Amino acid sequence: MTGPAPPPPRDLDALRERLRAFAAARDWDQFHSPKNLAMALIGEAAEVVEHFQWLTEEQSRALPPDKKAEVAAELADVLLYLVRLADKLDVDLAAAAAAKMQRNEAKYPAQQVRGSARKYTEY
Fold first, then answer.
1. Within this chain, do residues 97 and 86 fall inside the same structural domain, yes or no?
2. Would residue 3 count as lying in a domain?
3. Overall number of domains in the chain
4. Closest by alpha carbon to 33, among 47, 23, 43?
5. Is the pLDDT of residue 120 over 90?
6. pLDDT over 90 for what percent of the chain?
């Protein structure tokens, strides 16, 4: 019998630690190579895409609650595999994301690209 669910982790470090414990309790660390985790990550990302395949732009923005819940579960899978992969590669995701945002801000100056989908090499 299980008790109440623990509160969700509110930061990436807590999530990483919970994933480590989850994998260790099941002896799954042996399967969590970067290659396997990357493959699982892309498989889960494809499951997200399946929910939007063949929808119009408007339909994709207005998912019914049951479909939105399904997408949320798939997005959670993507996040879990991403955090686990980053852990195995000793990548600080928050720091990597902050550095990437800084590079993107330099590559895509708001005053130059506002309202345009052009790639930075096109302006």
1. no
2. no
3. 2
4. 23
5. no
6. 85
3-state secondary structure at position 52: coil
- Amino acid sitting at position 46: A
* pLDDT tens, residue by residue, 19-71: 999 999 999 999 999 999 999 999 999 999 999 999 999 999 999 999 999 99
For the chain, state the CA radius of gyration. 18
Question: Which tokens in the block code for residue 76?
Answer: 């959670």
- Torsion angle in degrees (nearest 10) through CA of 101, 77, 24, 6: 90
17 vs 85: CA distance, rounded Å: 13
Distance of alpha carbon 77 from alpha carbon 71, whole angstroms: 10
Its pTM stands at 0.86
Residue 4 domain flag? no
Apex 113 CA angle, 109 and 117, nearest 5: 130
